[in-house]
Structures are given as C-alpha cells and as structure tokens.
Amino acid sequence: ALQPLFKMSYSCSKVGDPRPGQPYKGGNFCAFLPDNKEGLKTAKLLKKAFEHGLTFQIKSCNGEERVTWGPIPHKTSWDGGKARNGYPDAQYLREVGTVL
C-alpha cells in the first residue's frame, strides 16, 4: 500500500522563500525506499535533511506559493525507472547518498 512519507499542511515560509513570513498550503508527498540495510540508512539521512528544512522548497506559480520537492532526489513511484522517478534504478541509493 502507498503511504505518504511526508505530509504538510498550512505553515509559514522561511527566509529565502518567495514571500518570507507568508502562509502557504502544503500537500501530500510520497517517496519510496527499499526495505534493506542501505534503504534504512538512506531513510535516516532523509529524516535529518527533513529536520533541517532541506526536503521541500516553496516556488511561486501564478502568484501562489506552492510546496515542491527540494533538490534531494526522491523515488515517487515503484516503477517507471529513473526517467519517471521510479524503480528500477540501480544507482539511486548511491546518488541520493552523495547528495545527502
């Protein structure tokens, strides 16, 4: 079953966002990792990145701020391969580990 890894609701933007201090609407974001030693290690690193505000960013689109994924690559699908942010992608854990 698909479960959201991150769920954001209403919050206030931070310095560096399009309109610091203004509220924005969050959303549901799902990401997947393999259930193995490397996947668990990556999950811990992703948690630290989330705690430091690096997982998401705010982009302005048509005068409205929207929460989007930040620069850290996430697998948002079980299939479709690298081109569709899914598996299989044999290099993903190594690549995301380098970014983190």
- Taken from the alpha-carbon principal axes, the silhouette is globular
**pLDDT < 50 stretches:** 7-12
Radius of gyration: 15 Å
Measured by DSSP, the beta-strand proportion falls in: 15-25%
Structural class: alpha+beta
Q: Order of SSEs, N→C?
A: EEEEHEEH
The CATH class: Alpha Beta
User: Biggest sheet, open or closed, and with what strands and sense?
Assistant: 2 strands, antiparallel
Strands ordered across the widest β-sheet:
1-4
Q: What is the β-strand count?
A: 6
Q: How far from one another are the termini?
A: 27 Å
Question: Can you offer a commentary on this structure?
Answer:
It contains two helices and six strands; from the N terminus they run E-E-E-E-H-E-E-H. Strand 5 and strand 6 form a beta hairpin. A two-stranded antiparallel sheet has the order 1-4. The chain has one domain (2-99): Enolase-like, domain 1 (2-Layer Sandwich). The protein has helices at 37-51, 92-99; strands at 6-7, 11-12, 23-24, 28-29, 56-61, 64-69. Its EC number is 2.3.2.27. Residues 7-97 form the Deltex C-terminal domain. It catalyses: S-ubiquitinyl-[E2 ubiquitin-conjugating enzyme]-L-cysteine + [acceptor protein]-L-lysine = [E2 ubiquitin-conjugating enzyme]-L-cysteine + N(6)-ubiquitinyl-[acceptor protein]-L-lysine. It is found in: Cytoplasm.
